[in-house]
Design brief:
- This protein is mostly helical.
- The protein has helices at residues 15-20, 28-34, 38-42, 47-66, 72-84, 92-99, 103-115, 129-134, 144-151, 155-160, 164-170; strands at residues 119-122, 138-141.
- Helix 2 packs across helix 9, helix 5 crosses helix 9 (144-151) and helix 6 (92-99) crosses helix 7 (103-115).
- The N and C termini lie far apart (39 Å).
Length: 171
Amino acid sequence: LAGRVAIFQLLPLSLRELTEAELVKNNFLEMATTGFYPAIFDRKIAPQDYYADYIQTYIERDVRSLVNVSNLRTFQLFLKMCAGRVGSALNFTSLGNDLGISRETVKSWINVLEASYIAFLLPPYFANISKRLSKTPKLYFYDVGLLCYLLGMNEKALSLHSSRGAVFENL
């Protein structure tokens, strides 16, 4: 019945939650590559194993139910390319050209990432409301561990990689 429902959006753990549970890492590289999904901490699953399974089930089950993706391999590449663009203004046309898909398909797939709480678009801040609504948003992932997994980075690779600043910004 109307009015008798509650919707909870369960996102990855926050730094505050990890700190209160005394699970926070003092090392940015370890924290970033481990991520914040509860199962990693609760079941002590290796982050690489967890994220591999997560992506596999996400793509095979959730994506197929949310949108008609004809080529799952292209969608996997899309996820990785989104990870490579984290923290920067999202150009739908450029991303589509790099993947060989249309701008509209990119927008549709970004909507899937947002609907499934994988990624979100952060609009720019301007005092002028019109500019705020019309300028290009930046792309971020809800979980930095998933981001690092998609980028193929472990702690050592992240310490040397030029995108560690973008990963830190995403964190």
